[in-house]
Amino acid sequence: MSVHPIEFEIFKNMFVxxxxxxxxxxxxxxxxxxxxxxxxxxxxxxxxxxxxxxxGDHMPVHxxxxxxxxxxxxxxxxxxxxxMVVVNDPFCGGTHxxxxxxxxxxxxxxxxxxxxxxxxxxxxxxxxxxxxxxxxMPLATELFQEGLIxxxxxxxxxxxxxxxxxxxxxxxxxxxxxxxxxxxxQIAANRTAENRLLQICAKYGAEPVxxxxxxxxxxxxxxxxxxxxxxxxxxxxxxxFLDNDGFSDRPIRIRVRVxxxxxxxxxxxxxxxxxxxxxxxxxxxxxxxxxxYAFRCLVEEDILYNSGISRPIRVVAPExxxxxxxxxxxxxxxxxxxxxxxxxxxxxxxxxxxxxxIPAASQGTMNNVTLGGRDPRRNEPFAxxxxxxxxxxxxxxxxxxxxxxxxxxxxxxxxxxxxxxYLPVRIRRYALRQGSGGKGEFPGGxxxxxxxxxxxxxxITVISERRLHAPYGTxxxxxxxxxxxTLFHExxxxxxxxxxxxxxxxxxxxxxxxxxGGGFGELKD
Length: 525
What we know:
Blueprint: H1 5-29, H2 33-36, E1 41-47, E2 52-55, H3 60-63, H4 66-75, E3 84-87, E4 99-106, E5 118-125, E6 153-157, E7 160-161, H5 163-170, H6 176-204, H7 206-229, E8 234-242, E9 252-261, E10 264-268, H8 284-296, E11 313-316, H9 332-353, E12 368-375, E13 380-386, H10 416-422, E14 425-433, E15 447-454, E16 458-463, E17 484-489, E18 492-496, E19 499-504, E20 509-513
Parallel strand pairs: 10-11
Antiparallel strand pairs: 1-2, 1-5, 3-4, 3-6, 4-5, 6-7, 8-9, 9-10, 12-13, 12-16, 14-15, 15-20, 16-19, 17-18, 17-20
Helix pairs in contact: 1-6, 1-7, 6-7, 8-9
């Protein structure tokens, strides 16, 4: 096929607009503040083989792993028109159990090939999917404690919900009305993609659309190869540590060696620690996701994030390690915390190859807070989940940004008004943590302070990192300040570790202070 440059740009932008419109639909029709306000979701479209064509500007932690869920849905059995498969199993391409993925086949009318021409998929974090604690982010020792496990299964058949499957899901969650609303929003998002792709094929013809879908993948691959070819050949190593797994004080090593040879890269995590008892284990999909994200950050051109990114990159992650855990390892924190540390070690290694180009470490944690109990205002259960921003690492020529989500997280901070309307909680303080960014010629951004006052007895779970091992500085810059968690009961401060579960009483105050980013360059007099 002859690719016309103007047509190429038109199709490239049409593809990404489909994924973005999926996200708008999901956001506007969802029920939970985690999706509606914090935008904890991701959407993408795929070709007939399940390879990514384009994705929205959503969550890197979701998007790099989602193709493996699409392939798992395809492998589970044939899909017919109007079907939709649901899956959250972390060992079928999922991230952790609260992230539920919907996969829909898209058939073209009158086509000779009976199979789908495209697939649409979206992933959203549900504020509760059962398990041993409200919010489904417990300090668990095995996957079964973390919530309801959904292998690839059809929730929609021939355009109609399967009521038995839906009833089974809703019977295993603490907030069924909210879950049903978010499930309906995810179904609507995939139908939006189907409608738009059918319209595009009707206007331009199915064959050109499929050919340009392949063309954008090939273009991304060419640009990624050119980017890798611009890195000096050699081996670059780096290591960093997770504070612990929540059950032991032992730090957990993540080590990487990046081998650059021409226009290809091998990313080898051999030397990383074995999988742990606690839930900071990452599955292979998560490690792939973080690796592709780090390399995509090197690309300066405007390209679609699709399957072309991964073609010149080989990932080695020993089975049974912290970066490729075996079933039934607990993984709730691996998605949100270990993915950030994998990114940190990759960027640390690439900084040796590209001095001056890679920023210092950002906060390196998502500061996961889950709250649950019974709301006396409505006399019904509540389960809430949010993550908190922190300091971005300083960059060559620019200081780090303060109070933002970085790297594998790309959500908003939930507005105070939304939290207080939704939860029996009062936000007493929400501010930048002044001076927490690492010093340097270009200092790191400051973290945040979020203070929650509980208005009723509440179960609290926090999974956070960088409470012991601070975000590193680069090129002579200083490390950012570590984070801190504190519970005030009857005015007495109780310092808490990075990972804990506790029961708070009405009047207690939970204070989360997030890490600052590392500084870049030596501080000049």
